[in-house]
Amino acid sequence: MQVEKSKPGAKEILSVAARLFAERGYSNVSIRDVCKEAGTTAPMIYNYFKDKKGLFHAAVSGKISLGQFIERLRGTAEVSRPRDGVASFVAAYLGSFPDEAFDPGLYLRETAKIDDKSAEKISRQLDQAYRIAISIVKRGVKAGEFREIDPEKAADCLVGMLNHIVFQKIHFSKSLDLEEVGDFITSFFLKAMEA
C-alpha cells in the first residue's frame, strides 16, 4: 500500500515564503520559487493568498511582532526613578528587540528600498519607542534627576545609540555582549544627563 503525501497547507506555504522573502527579498522571489520549495502548485497559493502581494503580506504579518516589543518598553516608563527607567529602557530595547521577527530583507524591492506600506507600519511602531524614551527624559527633568534639556533631542540620542547596536547585530551579525553594551550606553547617557 502506497502512502499519499499530503499537500502543504497555508501554514507550510507561509513558512517557505517567509524564508525565501527574507533570504532573497520580495522582487527576487517568484510564485514558482515558492511552489518548488513548498511542494505545491500556483493555483493552491492563489487559492490561499490571491497573489504574490497577498502571500507577501501574510508572511510579513506573521513575522513582525513589534507590538510586544513596544509593550515591554512601556513597562520601563513606569519605573519610579527616571534614572532606573533609562536603565530598564536600554535593557528592554537591546534584550527584546525582535531581530528574528524584524527582517528587513522581507520588505526590499528591486530598488533596495522598503516598500511604502511596510515602511509606514514599522515607522509608526518604532515612533512609539521614541515617545516612551521622551517620556522618561521628561520625567527625569521634572524630578530634577536630569539637567534641563530638550527631551526629544535627548531621546533621539538614546534611541540612536540603541538602533546602532541593533543594526550591527541584525545586518552584520555582529556578536555583541548586549548586557555590557547596554551598561555602557546607560552610563554614557546618564552622565550626559546629570543635573
Short recap of the structure:
Helices cover 69% and strands 0% of the residues. By secondary structure, it is mainly α.
Describe the structure.
The protein has 195 residues and is mostly helical. The chain folds into 2 domains: 53 residues, Homeodomain-like (Arc Repressor Mutant, subunit A); 129 residues, Orthogonal Bundle (Tetracycline Repressor, domain 2), CATH 1.10.357.10. 69% of the residues lie in helices and 0% in strands. The chain contains 9 helices and no strands. α5 runs antiparallel to α6 and α8 runs antiparallel to α9. It starts with 9 loop residues before the first helix and ends with a helix.
CATH class of the largest domain: Mainly Alpha
Number of helical runs?
A: 9
Query: What is the strand content?
Result: under 5%
Indicate the radius of gyration in whole angstroms.
Answer: 21 Å
Structural domains: how many: 2
Largest sheet: none
CATH architecture of the largest domain: Orthogonal Bundle
The shape is: elongated
Runs in which pLDDT lies below 50 for 5 or more consecutive residues are 106-112
Q: CATH H-level name of the largest domain... which superfamily?
A: Tetracycline Repressor, domain 2
What is the number of beta strands?
Answer: 0
Order of helices and strands: HHHHHHHHH
> How confident overall, as mean pLDDT?
82
- Share in helix: 55-70%
CATH fold naming of the largest domain: Tetracycline Repressor, domain 2
| Helix/strand/pairing category | mainly alpha
* Termini Cα gap: 80 Å
